[in-house]
Amino acid sequence: MPFLSLKFNLQKRVKLAQGLWMLYWLAVIVGIILFSLGIFFKIELRKRSEIMDNNESHLVPNLLILVGMLSCGLNAFGGKLCHDSLDPQKFSKMKPMLRPYMLLCCGFNALLLLLVLLCFLMQFAVYLTLAEGLKNAIRFYKDTDTPGRCFMKRTLDMTQIEFRCCGNNNFRDWFEVQWISNRYLDMSNDVVKDRVLSNVEGKYLMDSVPFSCCNPGSPRPCIQHHLTNNSAHYDYDHRTEELNIWNRGCRQAVFSYYSGIMNSIGALLIFTMVLEAGDMAGLKYLSTALETMADPENPECESEGWLLEKGFKETLADLLSKVKTFGRANQVEEGGASPDVAAT
């Protein structure tokens, strides 16, 4: 007995074909959105490649672009199948393509599932890449004259301004590195000389942050130097007062931005999978309803459509038996080939 069988007359077949045609073109629009999101995500990764040590993975956006193109092509063809299905002559020409097309759709859904998993799993890799990249970006902030690092200062400043963040984990990361180049330090000044000599590594360290860490929404003028020295500022206590610089680290801020994009893409991909599954089920009903017409020349006659030709258990048992038969055939071939190999 067929699984989930339904009776169809001409009116129901026409409505099903029209509804499927609309769903397939909706899937084409979703494919265009996926393609656009892939390009957008790739551009966003490229834009901040410097703060990720140029080690960011483009696997997800590349697959997203591929999936978008495949979705447009497969669903446009599915729409044409539905449009031509009610014409007996056109349907007879399209009929041999139905099975390969359904297999392609199953493979496409498997690719969608893989991409959904990657959208969530790759977030961990993005987090680690950002952690290491931002650490190095802060270290190279001062190297504006070094080839390959000339724009690191600008990139990091723009990142801190755009994402309203400061440092890698927090603003104290700037206290641990020399972020002012030696060319801008007056080495004849005793204060500067003492600060450099007092450091084991000969670095000019200070409790200050770049201007891009300042919060423009603060009512007090930005205090970016001597942040931990209460006596350097009037009516100031760094332990109790809310500082007028950004407290959030850039790793958390940028990662939240990228994870938001990837979560949104994952949700859209899940919707696409559901849409594709609905299209496949509808197409199966439509094709079987057209094949079981008692008189193909008479469009008014009733027919029966189904998802599976046999019951669910019987179909599953047949599938398992085919897999076992295929496995045994491979074992026999390997066993038959081994004597020949031994003889040689």
From TrEMBL:
<feature type="transmembrane region" description="Helical">
    <location>
        <begin position="62"/>
        <end position="81"/>
    </location>
</feature>
<dbReference type="GO" id="GO:0005886">
    <property type="term" value="C:plasma membrane"/>
</dbReference>
<feature type="transmembrane region" description="Helical">
    <location>
        <begin position="20"/>
        <end position="41"/>
    </location>
</feature>
<dbReference type="GO" id="GO:0007601">
    <property type="term" value="P:visual perception"/>
</dbReference>
<keyword id="KW-0472">Membrane</keyword>
<dbReference type="GO" id="GO:0007155">
    <property type="term" value="P:cell adhesion"/>
</dbReference>
<keyword id="KW-0325">Glycoprotein</keyword>
<comment type="similarity">
    <text>Belongs to the PRPH2/ROM1 family.</text>
</comment>
<keyword id="KW-1015">Disulfide bond</keyword>
<keyword id="KW-0130">Cell adhesion</keyword>
<dbReference type="InterPro" id="IPR042026">
    <property type="entry name" value="Peripherin_LEL"/>
</dbReference>
<dbReference type="Pfam" id="PF00335">
    <property type="entry name" value="Tetraspanin"/>
</dbReference>
<keyword id="KW-1133">Transmembrane helix</keyword>
<protein>
    <recommendedName>
        <fullName>Peripherin-2</fullName>
    </recommendedName>
</protein>
<dbReference type="InterPro" id="IPR018499">
    <property type="entry name" value="Tetraspanin/Peripherin"/>
</dbReference>
<keyword id="KW-0812">Transmembrane</keyword>
<feature type="transmembrane region" description="Helical">
    <location>
        <begin position="255"/>
        <end position="275"/>
    </location>
</feature>
<feature type="transmembrane region" description="Helical">
    <location>
        <begin position="101"/>
        <end position="130"/>
    </location>
</feature>
<dbReference type="InterPro" id="IPR000830">
    <property type="entry name" value="Peripherin/rom-1"/>
</dbReference>
<dbReference type="InterPro" id="IPR018498">
    <property type="entry name" value="Peripherin/rom-1_CS"/>
</dbReference>
<dbReference type="InterPro" id="IPR008952">
    <property type="entry name" value="Tetraspanin_EC2_sf"/>
</dbReference>
